[in-house]
Amino acid sequence: MKPSSVMLIAGEASGDFLAAELVAALRAECVPHVPRFFGAGGPNMAAAGVELAFDLTQHSVIGLWEAVRKYGQFKRLFDRLLHLACERQPDVIVCVDFSGFNRRFAAAIRREVRRRRGIFHNWSPKIVQYVSPQVWASRPSRAFQMARDYDLLLSILPFEKSWYAARVPELRVEFVGHPIIERHTKVAVVKIDGQGSELLLLPGSRVSELRRHLPPMLAAWERIKAARPDVRARMVLPSDEMVRLTRTVVGDALDSVTLQIGDLSEALAAATAAIASTGTVTLECALFGVPTVAMYRTSWPTYIIGRQIVQVKYLAMPNLLADEPIYPEFIQSAATPENLEDAALKFLDNAELREVVKSKLTRVVQSLGETGASGRAAKAILELPESSSK
Length: 390
Hints:
Layout: E1 5-10, H1 13-30, E2 36-41, H2 43-47, E3 51-55, H3 63-69, H4 71-88, E4 92-96, H5 99-116, E5 126-130, H6 142-149, E6 152-155, H7 160-167, E7 173-175, H8 179-188, E8 198-202, H9 207-227, E9 232-237, H10 240-250, E10 258-261, H11 264-270, E11 273-277, H12 280-287, E12 292-296, H13 300-309, H14 317-322, E13 329-331, H15 337-349, H16 351-366, H17 373-382
Parallel strand pairs: 1-2, 1-4, 2-3, 4-5, 5-6, 6-7, 8-9, 8-11, 9-10, 11-12, 12-13
Helix pairs in contact: 1-17, 3-13, 4-5, 5-6, 9-10, 9-15
């Protein structure tokens, strides 16, 4: 297909980055007939030339409880985007991650299309979900709704295509590879041999993550520093705003930590070990062969609900892909300074253990595919047939 306009929706910092990469790939593939790009996202999408209705990434939340508390706000944003889509009628709508919001948005678009269908209303956009929601971890029945509403699912994890094929074979799923391979490979292949040991602290990129992860993480660092005065600590945060927030949360506890904004590749290349929130960043640690202690804390209502519905053994993606706990995980009340300190010191003190972990991580990274995920994603979108069966 040759779209004249593409709408993109990304509600988190990671999705904003991913969407910006996709836009660049679509531009390259569509020359000379480059489509118009509009929607909602963040600064990376804006820099890539996407006309943003608003910055949706500023409203990112984690967990059901926080989403419920902000329901009114999300409903207003949702309605604005639905109105925008119906008004401008894009040929393609790309929902980037942000699964709860985007899943409902795709369903709402389908309802609007059916309601308006007639001789003078033939708008029927292709709807693409870029990054599979983790329905294989919880609530697998949602795959049937996805098959009903999406024309294409772009997967970045190797096992997902076969998982969907066994349950909803009518849903078109393409494994395009993981975008972190392309982002970091040039730096990752030149691993920096630093002077002494450096512990990398990665508390997360959301406000709620910082508030819950920083206190135990920094308390663990204080204990590590007392036991190993030769070790340095570096914390990477995504923006100046997050640095300011971090200082309000922990104050003077940051005095012994080198703060860095962005350039995660550089920090990972120099790190001996890391303490990180579970999520995509643990895959970035894996790409650089960094032994990592994974932790996660959320609100207690969200945690209790999660325990009832999550069906996987691990939260850190390298562990999930390897089907073994390469990275020790400390979740909720287990994420204590003492536990984090003990696990991190095992990595810092034991070079042989670090080599064993790096060897296992090599196999994990190989399973994520080759470079060029954005290009493959763009081609898969453009290969969709003009007519819709939805």
